[in-house]
Specification:
By secondary structure, the chain is an alpha+beta fold. The protein has 15 helices and twelve strands.
Length: 457
């Protein structure tokens, strides 16, 4: 009790240094565990989590090819579309090398608006005879194809999802913007016109109303789309079985017309390693002129962790400064608190019969009081708050603290506290008893007192 009481008095007597020590210990522990959580999550996201992705692969027009595909010129556009036969070499090459995959596909073609459904206008619309229509009708073979949608992922705000296996289904999904414009709701029917035969129409039932999960960019934005069909809000989604039943996937469409569907085959793989093998095989087999192979799912994943990577780049040097600087400051504060201005206190303690061991233990307890509790609070606060910090600063990507980080920092913190306590204790341990009998000078006059209890006459 004597040691604890004296230690507490010493801490409160030097309140400024003590408060600064507490604050530094708190900030260092909090900042270190939060920073390590961010760096660990970033390492996992670019390492094990990336390798664990189940990527897909698609053939997409290069930027140059896409620029040459005019929305009001069927010949320049549909002549560059791929057919199933264009994909066969890659499937065969993968099978020969035992590269496992599954596949799905989408087909897209323009359709005309009607009295029952009007599209959101573009900034420079052309006639439907030139563009094939104001809407894009995209048919998904299955749910995997919908997930790989290059217009962006979406969620339903009303209604139900598509039925992919029934040839009797007539359901379609329309955007909330189009539904609001036309006063359509789930269960209503609407008609769209054939891209080349203006007299032919197809009737769909509104099965669901969707909104995209992210903001549009480029011409897909309603504010910058030149043609109405280039605005992704004007995309009508349906099942391939439905489109095929309606005859919107003709076996032999007339060349150079908008009746030629834009086929997009999606290859799916179990892991990134298999995907990389497929990419090498596809490039070796030669890609179609004007096309490149990409992975929408991997691209989306990379985009999702980009804010995390940017945050980690900033945190990494800051962590070094925080850790090294924090240790240096704590060491400096410990030395300032125990090694300077306390000779008289130590001398009086020794004269009063306090041993070096007991005094050294008091100095260590002072250090424990100022560091153990703040460090524990900082680690706990950082541990519980790191996930929210990451979500706020890394684009919503949570950065939870792992048990490995927690235990490593607990042992590191204990090691640092013990080291600081030893530094504090050394002041008492190395104090020379001879200094008790050294002459003391008061205002330039040397005292003849032989110990601190004597008073000059």
């Amino acid at each position: 009790m004597f040691v604890l009481t004296n230690a507490w008095r010493a801490v409160t007597r030097r309140w400024a240094t003590s408060a600064l020590t507490v604050l530094v210990a708190l900030l260092v522990s909090f900042g270190t565990i939060a920073s390590l959580a961010i760096l660990q999550e970033n390492a996992d996201a670019h390492g094990a989590d990336y390798d664990a992705q189940t990527p897909n692969a698609v053939l997409r027009p290069t930027a140059k090819t896409a620029a040459a595909m005019k929305g009001d010129d069927a010949k320049s556009t549909t002549s560059k579309y791929l057919k199933f036969t264009d994909y066969n070499p890659y499937a065969i090459a993968a099978q020969e090398k035992s590269v496992s995959f599954t596949y799905s596909f989408t087909e897209t073609l323009p359709v005309r608006q009607s009295d029952s459904i009007k599209a959101i206008p573009g900034s420079s619309d052309e006639s439907a005879d030139k563009t094939g229509g104001e809407f894009q009708l995209r048919s998904f073979y299955d749910a995997k194809a919908a997930k790989a949608n290059d217009y962006g992922t979406y969620h339903l705000v009303d209604g139900k999802g598509l039925v992919f296996t029934s040839t009797k289904a007539t359901g379609a999904l329309i955007s909330k913007s189009v539904a609001d414009k036309n006063g359509l709701k789930v269960g209503d029917t609407f008609k769209v016109g054939d891209p080349t035969d203006s007299k032919k129409t197809y009737e769909f039932k509104v099965r669901g109303i969707y909104e995209y999960d992210d903001s549009a960019s480029g011409s897909a934005d309603s504010s910058s789309a030149k043609l109405a069909k280039e605005n992704r809000e004007n995309v009508i989604y349906t099942a391939y079985a439905t489109a095929y039943t309606f005859g919107l996937d003709p076996d032999s469409p007339k060349a150079n017309t908008w009746s030629v569907p834009d086929l997009n085959v999606i290859f799916d793989f179990t892991d990134v390693k298999t995907y990389n093998k497929f990419v090498k095989l596809a490039k070796k087999a030669k890609l179609p002129a004007g096309y490149e192979i990409t992975s929408p799912s991997l691209d989306a994943y990379k985009a999702s962790i980009e804010p995390l990577g940017s945050l980690a780049e900033k945190v990494r040097p800051a962590l070094r400064v925080l850790a090294i600087g924090g240790v240096v400051v704590l060491l400096a504060l410990t030395i300032a608190r125990t090694w300077f201005g306390r000779d008289d206190e130590i001398g009086m303690a020794f004269v009063s019969g306090v041993t070096k061991g007991r005094l050294g233990w008091q100095f260590m307890v002072e250090t424990f009081i100022l560091t153990v509790v703040p460090a524990a609070i900082g680690l706990a606060a950082g541990g519980f708050g790191a996930k929210a910090i990451g979500a706020a600063l890394a684009g919503g990507h949570a950065t939870p603290v792992t048990s490995d980080i927690t235990w490593t920092l607990i042992w590191d913190a204990l090691g640092l506290v013990v080291a600081l306590a030893i530094v504090a204790m050394l002041k008492a341990a190395t104090f020379s008893y001879a200094r008790l009998f050294a002459p003391v000078t008061y205002d330039g006059v040397e005292s003849t007192a032989k110990n601190p209890t004597e008073v000059d006459a």
